[in-house]
Amino acid sequence: MISLDNLKDKLATPCNIVITTHHKPDGDAMGSSLGLYNYLIQKGHHVKVITPTDYPFFLQWLPNNPEVIIYTDHQTQSNVLIKNADLIFCLDFNSLSRINEMGAEVKNSTALKIMIDHHLEPEDFDDFRHWSIKACATAQLVYDFIVNHLNERDLISSDVATCLYLGIMTDSGSFRFPTVTSDLHRIVADLIDLGANNSRIHQLVYDNASEERLRFLGYCLSNKLEVLREFNTALITVSQADINKFNIQTGESEGIVNYALSINGIKLAAFITERKNEVKLSLRSTGDFPANEICKKYFNGGGHRNASGGQSTDSLAAVTAQFKAILPEYKNLLLQ
Ligand code: 5GP
Ligand code: MN
């Protein structure tokens, strides 16, 4: 590990920096990455954001989004950038498996690795860490890093503020999850003062759905929702054929799991989707119920207590059956 002073020294002169984040990036992943990017370019650094995979169109309006490199589309160029980097910022993930094939490249790079993250149980691959599971979003930690560690609030331009606001907005469920504190509201207020246009950002993310997404949501709720009252659990399962029929693109199924959780009395909600080579699970829970434990123990995943994910190479039917078979183990907690 290096000290903060050491890192400050490195950042004092222009150098080659790569910023990366987890695969299938969400609002916090893109908001924190481009927020940090828009901050660092003002200091004269040569900065590239490399995402392991593509990401939803409703996140593609962020300032300097056209500068983002998608690893799966530009592997050779990305590998050179990673190899020649002096610093690699790893944002919104803490296990190299979350960046797919890029993980080995990052591990082998001689660059100093800086982890900024709010997920449980970080893996030991970094040289400097700004990490807290109390943070509601990685974007909040990026704000804290720039303002309180680097003392450079004056470099939070309206572009930086816009990106960080988006990250906090999406990871906090629009400022309503238990991780939202009065301190977080003060940070959000500061971001608005610094130029984030809050209502425009909400509109660009939440009032920007395709017609197909809305019809797909309707289909999921009326045809695919199963409510298991005996376990206070609700689940939605969708096949690849369903996805194809509605022409659902990356990220367009995001948030549907929350509708299942919004049912009165439901403590655990699952959205189980068939993808090309695997089945993906998204779990959400309320209160103390450890959704991440189920993902870690049974579905090769993890995440936060109330929002976690996992995957399996079994069939959709098998994964759904396995998920239901796990519920009796958690019956007491679910019925509390
Ligand atoms: P989502 O359901 O939106 O894919 O993921 C919810 C949360 O769980 C996110 O915070 C994400 O970082 C985490 N998560 C999703 N999939 C995985 C996984 O496979 N492994 C781990 N460790 N975390 C995951
Ligand atoms: Mn996050």
Structure description:
The protein is of the alpha/beta class and 336 residues long. It folds into two domains: 4-206, inorganic pyrophosphatase (n-terminal core), CATH 3.90.1640; 211-335, Diaminopimelate Epimerase, Chain A, domain 1 (Roll). The protein is built from 14 helices and twelve strands. Helix 2 runs antiparallel to helix 6 and helix 5 (138-149) packs across helix 6. The N and C termini lie far apart (43 Å). It binds guanosine-5'-monophosphate and manganese (II) ion. The site of manganese (II) ion (MN) has 6 residues, from loops.
Offer a quick outline of the entry:
The protein is an alpha/beta fold. It has 14 helices and twelve strands. It folds into two domains: 203 residues, inorganic pyrophosphatase (n-terminal core) (Alpha-Beta Complex), CATH 3.90.1640.10; 125 residues, Diaminopimelate Epimerase, Chain A, domain 1 (Roll).
Question: Top keywords for this entry?
Answer:
336 residues; Diaminopimelate Epimerase, Chain A, domain 1; binds guanosine-5'-monophosphate; binds manganese (II) ion; inorganic pyrophosphatase (n-terminal core)
